[in-house]
TrEMBL record, chain A:
Classification via CDD domains: ABC_DR_subfamily_A (cd03230)
Keyword Acetylation attached: no
SMART domains: AAA (SM00382)
Protein name (record): ABC-type xenobiotic transporter
Species lineage: Bacteria, Bacillati, Actinomycetota, Actinomycetes, Kitasatosporales
Enzyme class: translocase
Subcellular location: Cell membrane
Any GO MF annotation of the entry: ABC-type xenobiotic transporter activity
One GO CC term on file: plasma membrane
GO biological process terms, semicolon-separated: response to antibiotic
Species this protein is from: Streptomyces radicis
Domain ABC transporter per the UniProt entry, residue ranges: 10-235
Homology family: Belongs to the ABC transporter superfamily. Drug exporter-1 (DrugE1) (TC 3.A.1.105) family.
UniProtKB/TrEMBL annotation, chain B:
Record GO cellular component, one term: ATP-binding cassette (ABC) transporter complex
Membrane topology: Multi-pass membrane protein
Protein name: Transport permease protein
Superkingdom classification of source: Bacteria
Signal peptide residue numbers: none
Natural source organism: Streptomyces radicis
Annotated GO biological process: response to antibiotic
GO molecular function, one term: ABC-type transporter activity
Length: 310, 263
């Protein structure tokens, strides 16, 4: 029953996919280790969905090599399909079908599905189980799509923006389920454009922009070296030279965009006091002072010069 | 096979496809339930054929259909059975499949263990079950109205199956190539046009010869004409009509297979 172990759950090398004149995926490399959660992170239009749909076998790449669970997703589709779970970004369900009915149906297509009632209960679908799909809320639809992806007990699940548009509670339930999948040895590939999600869930992150992976690693690796940052807003054009002189050794200050300041170094209470004291001396009312870890969001901004969330 | 796992949980992978017959049966059952639950579909598959049967047999509107009610029922029942085939295999299936394509249902199922041909088998199963129910209902009503069918039931069933294949091919061709809204409009339009010009309630003899020759080549005309030959006139299998339906089936299914777009 068990397939021969494969080194990688997904192995993509130099993947290219074009649609007419647009190149959606442009020489993308991706390796997914079995049993991990890999987040494909990038802004809208970066090529995340195309990449995932290539892995799911919806279309063949124009160039490059792609193996999913050691199989060619298009040529070996029949062998691959029972082993993967798929959550599309939207839709995929008959408008008139009831939530539980659809879940039961997809369970019936598999040999050893999860218990439908229990899964529905855990994802908060029990109360709307008899509601037709077209009358479900956006959040309920998302959770049903997630349930459909995992009900067949797949080895590998692809989740295309699993928490887009969810309220915090539903997002938490989804994150918990993804955590359980990981604990039980399921490999998960998810796309997201929220850094928080990648940081919370992913063992590995591949940052995608314009159809390529521009950085990869664990969240810690990607954020490492950046250290902590203190940010504040003030009137544009403050005297940075003076501010730098006031900072403890190893500290630095910058104004990446007018009126928005970033202080790096050992971010501790002393540094915060130094900055606010300097502001007081210079008659600056510092606004929105935050101290936090260097995040994937910062990494993305540094790598691309673009905000992830416009 | 013994294997050590450090952890076994609810989601521990145990992938596998269900046996094919079970998958196809599940697909057919789901699609049948949704066909029967859908209000507009029921209007098309049940209400309209029933109303036509009852109304046109009671009232002498179409003179060539017959002078007595029994004669009119003998004329109408085969036509209404052909209309039932058209409503389910063509119009209903085209609209449902068009929207399934539009809403990504076909896309979603394409990554399930059910192969595409299995999905098509499921659809065909749903159409056949629905047709069986329609035929039983309409036959019952016709008999209550005084229908006295003759001929070989097996021959009639064979013609209806050929008609189903022809209508399915054309319906799927439409659903797989046009936008869902266009399919909705076109499938309904074809239904109404063929209702009048397909020999269902108006005998083709009422049309001018040139037009009649064209109309007789349509699948619904071949089906209604053929069924009438058997059930009203007690003829054997009408080979010309069967051949017309077989040709439409081959052309329609081949074109659908070639041009159908899943997304």
């Amino acid at each position: 029953m068990d397939a021969p172990p494969t080194a990688s759950a997904v192995e993509a090398v130099g993947l290219v996919k074009r649609y007419g004149a647009t190149t959606a995926v442009d020489g993308l490399d991706l390796t997914v280790r079995p049993g991990t959660v890999t987040a494909v992170l990038g802004p809208n239009g970066a090529g995340k969905t195309t990449t995932i749909e290539l892995c799911e076998g919806y279309r063949a790449p124009d160039a490059g090599r792609l193996r999913v669970l050691g199989l060619d997703p298009v040529a070996d589709a029949a062998a691959l399909r029972p082993r993967i779970g798929v959550m599309l970004q939207s839709g995929g369900v008959y408008p008139g079908v009831r939530a539980i009915e659809m879940l039961t149906h997809v369970a019936r297509l598999h040999a050893h599905p999860l218990d439908v009632a229990e899964l529905a209960e855990r994802l908060g679908l029990a109360s709307c189980g008899r509601t037709p799909y077209r009358r479900l809320s956006g959040g309920q639809r998302q959770r049903l799509a997630l349930a459909l992806a995992v009900v067949g007990r797949p080895e590998l699940v692809f989740l295309d923006e699993p928490t887009a548009g969810l309220d915090p509670q539903a997002r938490r339930a989804t994150w918990e389920l993804i955590g359980e999948l990981r604990a039980d040895g399921v490999t998960t590939v998810l796309s997201t454009h929220t850094m928080e999600e990648a940081e919370e869930l992913a063992d590995d992150v591949a940052i995608v922009d314009a159809g390529r992976v521009i950085a990869r690693g664990t969240p810690a690796e990607l954020c490492g070296g950046g250290g902590d940052v203190l940010r504040f807003a003030g009137r544009p054009g403050l005297d940075l030279v003076s501010l730098r002189q006031a900072l403890p050794v190893g500290g630095d200050a910058a104004e990446p965009s007018p009126g928005s300041y970033v202080v790096t170094g050992d971010v501790d209470p002393r540094l915060l006091a130094t900055v606010t004291a300097w502001c007081a001396q210079h008659g600056v009312l510092a606004d929105r002072i935050t101290t936090r870890r260097h995040t994937l969001e910062d990494v993305f901004l540094e790598l691309t010069g673009k905000e992830l969330r416009p | 096979m013994t294997e050590t796992r450090t952890h076994t949980g609810r989601h521990t992978p145990r992938p596998g496809a269900a046996p094919l017959p079970r998958m196809i049966a599940a697909q057919a059952a789901l699609e049948t339930r949704m066909l029967l639950r859908h209000g507009e579909q029921l209007l098309l598959t049940v209400v309209i054929p029933t109303l036509l049967l009852v109304l046109f047999s009671a009232v002498d509107i179409v003179s060539a259909a017959g002078d007595t009610r029994a004669e009119r029922v003998d004329f109408l029942a085969p036509g209404v059975l052909a209309l039932a085939v058209l409503s389910t295999a063509f119009t209903g299936q085209a609209i449902a499949t068009g929207y399934e394509r539009r809403y990504g249902v076909l896309k979603r199922l394409a990554t399930s263990p059910l192969p595409r041909w299995g999905l098509m088998c499921g659809k065909t199963g749903a159409v056949l079950v629905t047709l069986l129910l329609q035929t039983a209902l309409l036959t019952g009503i016709a008999l209550a109205l005084g229908w006295s069918p003759r001929g070989n039931a097996l021959g009639a069933a064979l013609l209806m199956l050929l008609g189903t294949a022809a209508c399915s091919g054309l319906g799927l061709l439409m659903a797989g190539t046009l936008r869902a809204e266009a399919t909705l409009a076109a499938a309904n339009l074809v239904f109404v046009l063929l209702l009048f010009f397909g020999g269902v309630i108006i005998p083709l003899d009422d049309f001018p010869d040139e037009l009649r020759a064209v109309l007789e080549a349509l699948p619904v005309s071949a089906l209604s004409g053929g069924l009438r030959d058997i059930l009203r006139d007690g003829a054997g299998l009408p080979w010309a009509d069967a051949a017309t339906l077989a040709a439409w089936s081959a052309a329609g299914l081949a074109a659908a297979g070639h041009f159908f777009r899943w997304e």
